[in-house]
Automatic annotation (TrEMBL):
Stored InterPro entries: AB_hydrolase_1, AB_hydrolase_fold
Name listed for the protein in its UniProt record: Alpha-beta hydrolase superfamily lysophospholipase
Domain AB hydrolase-1 stretches: 47-280
Source organism per UniProt: Actinomadura hallensis
Gene3D superfamilies: alpha/beta hydrolase (3.40.50.1820)
A GO molecular function held by the record: hydrolase activity
Length: 302
């Protein structure tokens, strides 16, 4: 049964109800990629939303209701949600390629501005996709560079394994096809600062309750950003980071964020955990994203 994540949001968000969603399927490299389309098709701004580990497109749709008039594209990345890989091997490079293709498709579809929003490890995914294709804005909750042992330690369920995982996973390459529960590898108990929300994520077979291949884990842990931050000038960057993130605190993202050459802004979301659903941070997130999308809508035409 699909988890209704809207129930974990404040009443003002719940009362607005879930956004109308249209499901679409896209054939991509032999996979059937499931994409959620929501919002106003005639809105002045388009938003591509990229989830992270333990997530899927529908999980993030409640956030899009905070943004005003936008048209939203939220894919289920391979290995999560309803996307069918049809036996094709999934690695992190395929995630970047798919995200970049989706962003490029939205940019080519019409002249409206495109903003890419990445949550959790979807932040660096969005960064790499935008570095490759361009966009009118990049918004992230964090920017986790897995070349940093401290980042790997925080992301992993067991910190010592995370620190050693980069060379260790290469030794285990023959086990690439093996699929193991997400919760064995990642700290699903730190997804939020609420036990009920963590339990929902861990029990969601489309997300944190699913399985991931060791191939994906290995290639993710050995990944590098599309460009170094000193060379990123594709568009303005907003990092809206949860201030009470018990999984990946802001100190892990700042070394990368501070090096970004493009115009950038950091907003700390007060009282929020890794998946921000608390006030006042949720209101701060809504204001920051509305200002960001309004600036993109008012910007010069591409």
């Amino acid at each position: 049964m699909t988890v209704d994540y809207l129930q974990f949001f404040p009443a003002r968000v719940r009362d607005s109800g879930p956004p109308p969603v249209v499901s679409q399927w896209r054939r991509w490299r032999g996979m059937d990629v499931h994409v959620h389309r929501a919002g106003d098709p005639s809105a002045p701004v388009k938003l591509v939303v990229l989830h992270g580990a333990g997530g899927h497109g529908r999980m993030l749709l409640p956030y899009t209701g905070l943004l005003g008039p936008v048209e939203v594209t939220a894919p289920d990345m391979p290995g999560y949600g309803l996307t069918r890989t049809n036996g094709r091997p999934v690695d992190y490079a395929a995630w970047v390629d798919l995200a970049a293709d989706l962003v490029a498709g939205e940019r080519d579809r019409d002249g409206r501005p495109v903003i890419v929003l990445g949550a959790s490890i979807g932040g660096m995914l969005a960064y790499s996709a935008v570095a490759r294709t361009g966009a009118d804005g990049l918004a992230v909750t964090c920017l986790l560079d897995v070349r940093d042992a401290a980042v790997r330690a925080a992301a992993a369920r067991f910190a010592p394994l995370g620190r050693a995982a980069r060379p260790g996973m290469n030794v285990l390459r023959p086990l690439d096809p093996l699929r193991v529960p997400v919760r064995w590898l990642a700290r699903m108990t730190a997804m939020a600062n609420r036990a009920d929300l963590n339990a929902a994520v861990s029990g969601d077979r489309l997300g944190g309750g699913g399985r991931v291949s060791l191939r994906f884990l290995r290639t993710y842990l050995n990944s590098v950003p599309e460009v170094e931050p000193e060379r990123f000038t594709a568009c303005p960057v907003l990092m809206a980071h949860p201030a009470e993130d018990r999984w990946t605190p802001v100190e892990l993202s700042l070394p990368f964020f501070d090096r970004i050459a493009a115009a950038k802004r950091l907003v700390m979301l007060e009282g929020c955990g890794h998946m921000p659903v608390e006030e006042p941070g949720l209101g701060q997130l809504a204001r920051a994203l509305r200002e960001f999308t309004a600036a993109a809508a008012a910007g010069p035409a591409r």
